[in-house]
Amino acid sequence: MVALTTEQYKSIISTMKTGTRTFRANPRIAAVLMAEANLGMRVGDILRLRLCDIVRDGGRLRLNIIEEKTGKRRTFSVPEQIYSFFCDYCREQNLSPTDKMFPITERAVQKHLKAVCDYLGYTNISTHSFRKWYATDIYNATGHDIILVQRLLQHSSPSVTRRYIGISDERIESAIANHVHIVA
After folding, report:
1. Across residues 75-96, what is the average pLDDT?
2. Which of 55, 121, 155, 163 has the most CB atoms in a 10 Å sphere around its CB?
3. Domain count of the fold of the chain
4. What average pLDDT does the structure give for the chain?
5. How much is the average pLDDT of 171-180?
6. Could you give the angle at which helices 27-39 and 6-18 cross, rounded to 10 degrees?
7. What are the φ/ψ torsions at residue 63 (nearest 5 degrees)?
8. Has residue 18 been placed in a domain?
9. 73: domain range?
10. Is pLDDT larger for residue 99 or for residue 176?
11. In this structure, is residue 182 part of a structural domain?
């Protein structure tokens, strides 16, 4: 699986929201994928998310969950716009703060995503591509701060994060070789 491009992300979400003759619109699955792309969480953790898992902590909103895969507490901030999106979504779906926001299976998300990607002609894209896009986008936006991205993803080491976002040893070696500035 690969990280999405920004264009692919927008195209997948908008197509999923509107639907086509081949498949019906599915705003719930679009919301799951937007949450993954904007919070960098694994899809399984997104599917267990409840509005009450986002708590006010002083002047910020933060997640108060334990990641299923790692068993680590995730306490990062949630941008106000994402929280507002979740509040609107829950209101539209008539969900209480203690209800799961996305009472669907990971398989259902994957199946609908595959249908959309097939329709758009995209290959090698899975739900995890949205988390990879989050990581890669932040990595590029922060001037390639691998340690920051490592912490956001809660990876055990920078080398895991480098592999995750596709920074191979060959790319590192190429960058070094192409950055030679000797002044005579």
Report:
1. 95
2. 155
3. 1
4. 92
5. 72
6. 160
7. -75, 145
8. yes
9. 6-177
10. 99
11. no
